Amino acid sequence: MRRYGPAVLLLLSGAAILRISLFSEVYLRYVQPGLRPFLIASGVVLVLLGAVSGWRSARDRANHSHEGHSHAHGPRVALLLAVPALALLLSPPPALGSYSAEREAARYAAQGVGTFPELPAGDPVDLTLGEYTSRAIYDSERSLKGRTVRMTGFVTREENEDDEGDDGTWYLTRLLVSCCAADAAPYRIEIREADAPPADAWVTVTGTWHPKGDLGTDGAWPPVLDATSVKRVAEPRNPYEKR
């Protein structure tokens, strides 16, 4: 079995990559859509390399059998690398959720106070969390005033530092991915006037902007929304925020 270890590892890795990128859209949990062709290509290359490696191992084994001896190839510890490949193949990890969002303090928003383009006519207007955050914190024209907005994200909760549990504060959250899940950073909007759904639940929230703090200051962070409707929804095909 050790003789075929490298071939098995290559085949498993290639199959796992193809499983999430070619035969499903699970890859969207980890990378941007534009990287799909590269994932598929790398998966195909790994499968081909594994097949060639397996064929050469079988050929060498046949030759050694005729000569009356054989040799083991590669350390057994290398086979441990097959474990993450199997996990990705059989049960891919979920997209990043509230735990990752709460560990990251990075804020992606427009820099500096200024004006923004007018919002589309009609209410509610659909916004990304990034768009709402930028306008709430930096828009000198206060374009959110008097408008009803609608956004989709997952639920994160606020924990008290004195270990007495949460204080009822909750946030609509979405992670922004520039390249892959490793660089994910959250947008977070405090939701008021509505009970909190379970953590990590996906919801669509409709409501109105609640002014807070001075523009462009820490006092305006995080932005606030007074909710008029909170609806449970399925996780989107692409769970990450669009830039």
Automatic annotation (TrEMBL):
It comes from the Bacteria. The keyword Lipid biosynthesis does not apply. The chain crosses the membrane at residues 39-56. InterPro entries: DUF1980, DUF1980_C, UPF0703_membrane_permease. It comes from Streptomyces poonensis. This is TIGR03943 family protein. Residues 135-240 form the DUF1980 domain. Keywords: Membrane, Transmembrane, Transmembrane helix. The keyword Transmembrane applies.
